[in-house]
Specification:
The protein is an alpha+beta fold. It contains three helices and eleven strands. The strands form two sheets. The chain has a seven-stranded mixed beta sheet with strand order 2-3-11-8-7-1-4.
Length: about 180
């Protein structure tokens, strides 16, 4: 069955999405959300208490550059590491508090694939074991104009996980309902 799916996928070049991510993405504390999953698809997401999903945005031609998934062979199985790159604009006490929070928690990051209108539109890094702060760099002459942050989820079972509830519009409504008012 996997070989058949692979052959169909290789023959279907027209179904390949455009490269990259939209400028707008979302981040949430994985302990603050209850995720309902079916395989590698999150079919529902509900807040625990007053927790929220927060919008992040990177302007430019190639937002979230460095975001990727890679396989990591372990003793018994292949597991996957997901990396998402973000920018925390500015450098001050507020930004330091954000960096400290990212360093001490586990997060999910929802990215929107450009040109995708099916169940793979919203990819989630960190939904299994949580993405943790791997690096945070501030360089005052950088074009980023803030902290460049790399969040990494290590040793996830699924190669990729997606958020999808019924259709893309319903999924976006779900995310929007979890944003702060």
């Amino acid at each position: 069955m996997i070989c058949t799916k692979l052959a169909q996928n290789i023959d279907n070049c027209s179904a390949a999405p455009q490269r990259g991510w939209e400028e707008e993405a979302y981040i949430f504390d994985i302990e603050g959300m209850t995720l309902t999953k079916s395989g590698n698809i999150i079919t529902n997401m509900t807040a625990v208490g007053s927790n929220k999903v927060y919008k992040v945005k990177i302007n430019g031609l190639q937002p979230y550059t460095g975001t990727m998934i890679e396989g990591a062979q372990q003793l018994a199985a292949m597991l996957f590491n997901g990396t998402a790159s973000l920018i925390v604009l500015g450098n001050g006490p507020t930004q330091a508090t954000i960096i400290n929070g990212l360093a001490n928690g586990r997060y999910g990051i929802i990215l929107k694939q450009i040109g995708v209108t099916d169940n793979s539109r919203f990819m989630v890094i960190g939904s299994e074991v949580g993405a943790k702060l791997a690096t945070a760099t501030f360089e005052s002459y950088s074009e980023a104009r803030g902290w460049t942050v790399t969040m990494t989820e290590e040793l996830a079972i699924n190669a990729a996980t997606f958020l999808y509830k019924t259709d893309v519009t319903t999924t976006q409504s779900l995310i929007d309902s979890l944003l702060p008012a």
